[in-house]
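step=predict obj=Pilin, putative n=79
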Amino acid sequence: MGLCRWERTFSWVDYEGERAMKTLQHAVARFVREEEGVTAIEYGLIAGLIAVAIIISVQALGLKLASLFSYITGQLKVP
């Protein structure tokens, strides 16, 4: 079949243009789906890094807070 064909309505239908448009639509749809996946992965990585930062902060401050509370408790019992 050639590039165009004659319709019963006496108008030309461009098969190559239609095929190109469908191909473009599929490519754009695939790109959008892939971008959403990449965005989800990026958000997951950011959430993971924030969780690691919180864990490290709590562990680093945990001992200092425990000793601070022990000191305060000791000061309250002295009188």
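step=describe
The chain has a mean pLDDT of 77.
step=end
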